[in-house]
Amino acid sequence: MAMLKSAEKLGEILINSKVLAPEQLAKALEVQRGTRKRIGEVLVELGLVTELDIATSLSRQLSIPYASKSSGLLAPQKGEGLERCVTEEFARQHCVLPIAKTLNSLTVAFVNPLDLITMDNLVRLSRCEINPVVTTKADLEWAIEQFYGDDSMLKKAIGESFEETEDDEAAEDPELDLDRLKQAAEEAPVIRLVDLIIRQAIKERASDIHVEPFRDKLSLRYRIDGALHEISAPAKHLHPAIISRIKILCKMDIAQKRLPQDGAFSMSMEGRSIDFRVSTVPAIYGEKIVIRILDKSPALLDLGRLGFQTKALEAFRSAIRDPYGLVLITGPTGSGKSTTLYAALNEINEPTRNVLTVEDPVEYRLEGINQVQVKPSIGLTFAAGLRSFMRQDPDVLMVGETRDQETAEICVRAALTGHLVFTTLHTNDAPSAVSRLVDIGIAPYLLSSTISLVVAQRLLRKLCEGCKEGYEPIQEIRNRFGITEDLLYRAKGCDKCSSSGYRGRLGVYEVMTLPRELRDEIAKGSPAHVLKDVAAKGGMSTLWDEGLKKARAGLTSLEELEGVVLLER
Q1: pLDDT of 154 strictly over 80
Q2: Nearest by Cα to 415 from 394, 384, 436
Q3: Are 59 and 66 in contact (CB under 8 A)?
Q4: At what angle do helices 382-389 and 405-416 cross, to 10 degrees?
Q5: Which is higher by pLDDT, 196 or 447?
Q6: Cis status, amide bond into 361, omega within 30 of 0
Q7: What is the pLDDT of residue 34?
Q8: Can you spell out the DSSP letters for 295-341?
Q9: Helices 528-537 and 516-523: crossing angle, nearest 10°?
């Protein structure tokens, strides 16, 4: 790897280059605090510097070349194997571009040449010495599109001529009339294109597909293992036909473009049924559409395969087999709460039980269970649905989310009157769920007698088995995380995992049972930290402890754990 002249931080470089004042840097650092943005992004957003200022300052300070779109240096030759040295996925994700290769030396354009982690990953991936050049983000994104875009899988599938042949009249007037729009959506190339987008997403194990229009391009992104990845997109002029095709699949109103719409459809792939939930919103350059992929694989609805530790799984199964009580599942959006709920319902779903759910939206459709979709616009809220359920002779009730006092009160009342109730909350850990319900307005003494179990959960990315590498943690890491292991594992990156170092996700669970001591503390209205101490003394394993077990076993990395679960101090 080429040695950089300076090890200064970017802010120091800009100050030394007289581009930025110290007080401006202090202001930017204050704005950056609490975000995951790089300081360069914050400085540009605040208007304190330009991308060009950052690039030229880095070039002077580090004594590396500056490359711009106009210079012609950002136009690497195709067919020389550069795309094998640095994959499209890696280039887009890390904002780098291979420019030239000579023997064992690879010249790479960076937006941030001080990103030593990316530099080190490039050395391992390409097995070359890296010679960095610096450029602006805008120029690099343009160059990446020029270099990788024409080889897009989607273009190959539908044919170059279809991508490049644009209807002149459509280009002049993107608001096509309805008849022409419907006709375009039903043409074979558009049907094949949408089908390919969906099938490729399933093949890549994506959970969501984002189709987003911008001023002069169409963006296509897949959410894989919790992170969004941009892939080569179709031409911008195909946007209306793509959106209309998806709307037709969902039986939406293709004429309505000014209001958000929701819909759903299903399809079979490789012998299994897959549901799709679709949402559209009117953005300034056209409608954005998001497709949530709901794979009804039996493995996803098997409670025993979600990742619970043996003791926690026994406690959870015992609680969902109780004739009555309140079972709470907590965690942030995207932590897998719905999957856990559906797996629990799937396990106790029997002809002898009347199971009713009220959800927003209904994600998985389960045979033998009565599921209701909330529609606030017509007065069908969680609370309204629950009130009607109480007259439906229920045994088990599932409430997609407890958002207000009325819903919480009905859940507690149902549990008190002999029903088993499942619901979710957005809290950071299991003890905080009790405090949240008290804050909503539920009396502590009612919670102490109704709650059967609380589960807090997160999803961690699994290290790719094909490329994860072992390392010996330094003493600082041992002390910080309280570990004694001589060997841990970290992400590396390979073709199998698209150079991310991770493939798949696993659940970590904090299961809080309620022995008498804990019920007494709840009844007294004790705060969450007191409940947590009591639960820990009773044998509860925290989210951090569970995640650390996964890291020690080589299933995930400490970096991933720290990025998802708050480090306990």
Answers
A1: no
A2: 394
A3: yes
A4: 20
A5: 447
A6: yes
A7: 67
A8: E--GGGG-GGGS---HHHHHHHHHHHTSSSEEEEEE--TTSSHHHHH
A9: 170
